[in-house]
């Protein structure tokens, strides 16, 4: 079985069914709680649960998403 590889936080949220469903899955009271993941990264405590849930749904989560920080653009300095 070929699994879709998720490489961004947006991919993860979409795989969970959007912001409201991702927030519900994570246990947030606010429907848009998971939207903060776009700016702050996925909280460290969710990585294993997300990996298992996404695998159950037929996805693979990139290990690059295991960082608790948002990667910044890497422009070469002059």
Question: How does this model look, in words?
Answer:
The protein is mainly alpha-helical and 78 residues long. 37% of the residues lie in helices and 8% in strands. It is globular and about 35 Å long. The chain starts with a strand and ends in a 17-residue tail after the last strand.
Concise synopsis of the structure shown:
By secondary structure, this protein is mostly helical.
Radius of gyration: 13 Å
Strand content: 5-15%
Major sheet details:
2 strands, parallel
Give the CA-based shape: globular
- How many distinct helices? 4
| Order of SSEs | EHHHHE
DSSP summary, beta strand count: 2
List keywords for this structure.
two-stranded parallel sheet, globular
């Amino acid at each position: 079985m070929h699994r879709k590889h998720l490489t961004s936080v947006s991919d993860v949220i979409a795989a969970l069914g959007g912001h409201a469903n991702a927030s519900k899955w994570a246990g947030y009271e606010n429907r848009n709680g998971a939207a903060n993941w776009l700016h702050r990264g996925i909280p460290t405590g969710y990585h294993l649960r997300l990996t298992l849930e996404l695998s159950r749904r037929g996805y693979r989560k990139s290990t690059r998403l295991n960082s608790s920080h948002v990667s910044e653009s890497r422009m070469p300095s002059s």
